[in-house]
Amino acid sequence: MIRRLDCTWQISLRAACCAALLFAAGCEKPAAPPPPPPPEVTVIKVEVRDTPVVNEFVALTQSPQQVSIVARVSGFLDKQRYTEGTVVKPGQILFEMDKKPFIVQLDGARASQASAKAAHDTALANLKRVKPLVELNALSQKDLDDATGQEQTTKASLEQATASVESAKLNLSYTTIASPLRGVAAAAQQKEGAYLSAQNNLLTTVSSLNPMWANFSISENELSALRNEVRAGRLKGPQNNVLSAEIVLSDGSTFAHTGSISFIDPAYNPQTGTFLIRVTVTNPDGELRPNQYVKVRLKGATRPNAILVPQRAVQQGSKGHFVWVIDADGRVENRPVAVGDWYGDQWFINDGLKAGDQVVVDGGLKLKAGDTAKVSAAASAAPAAKKP
Is the entire prediction scored with pTM above 0.90? Predict the structure, then answer.
């Protein structure tokens, strides 16, 4: 009996020891995890530089001189003497009308002129005979007045007949219709054999090609913004105040010749809310044609002491735009900025940054103010972007 109790006591003692060991092990605190590494970011070092500015607009080409070719007399269209869509020269015949009726009119006018001249010659000779006889009192003053009146009447008839001849000549010349300038001729509006009158006298149009205009519009808000930039000193024009105009064709290629602004409409268009601006460019080979859509790039303006940062570095918050800046100790600062225009894949910064600031370009989404960041790459400055 005593031996059984001894065994029971030993088992209880062992269980108590095991429980104590398990309790002691459960009360130990686990080791704290290591802190996360600082986020890695890519930064650029801000530099201040004079940056050329290029403004791009969609424009529509226009011929400086577009002439409507019309029939100036009524009659039948006899022949078309040009190929539609080709370049014609000054004086080149485009159309011919039936001349026969106008030749008959000219012959009749010349006959009337000859008759009037004969009558005037007779009256003039009679006047020359009457004058000396009146001086000798052989004829009365009335005879002299009648002779003078007859001479003046026949003279007026002769002048009228001569004018009729000139009118008939003009009408005959109008039957040959030529181009008044060098340019491209459009499609014919009337076909051979058609009767031309005042109601259907438009034959075609000829548009000059050299030089060529490119018209575009700028809104009132854009114009005001540009003026404000100039007043603030953030935009400076060229020294001669002449912006060069580069023409970009529909395929993206650049036209060989550059132009300049030749006209700014002083009148505001209330229907479109814009001002019209015209660029004139030489077009010796006729590559540009009227009513083409092109792009106009105005070059020559500069932003002095400009700051450019990549667009992806600028973020939008509840209080506006901001960038992440790394200070000398590697800590992150949320810096509000005032942004200007886009420039390629970069953004002009009007306020908020200075030369030497390190601006986060990549990795900014993981940051918060006060963090310590690890700079994995850096550039000395944001390269000046080129407009496409």
Answer: no
Going by C-beta distance under 8 Å and a sequence separation of 6 or more, which residues neighbour residue 379? Answer: 43, 44, 45
pLDDT tens per residue, range 37-46: 777 778 888 8
- Tally of structural domains, the chain: 4
- C-alpha–C-alpha distance, residues 53 and 255, integer Å: 20
Pairing label, strands 75-80, 93-97: antiparallel
Same domain, residue pair 79 and 202: yes
Residue 13 maps to a domain:
no
Which tokens is 370 given?
């006060």
Whether 286 and 351 map to the same domain: the answer is no
The CA-atom distances, in angstroms, between 12 and each of 3, 5, 8, 15, 89 are 15, 11, 6, 5, 126
Looking at residue 28, what is its pLDDT?
55
Please indicate, yes or no, whether residues 275 and 360 belong to a single structural domain of this protein: no
192 shares a domain with 79? yes
Distance between CA atoms of residues 169 and 177, nearest Å: 14
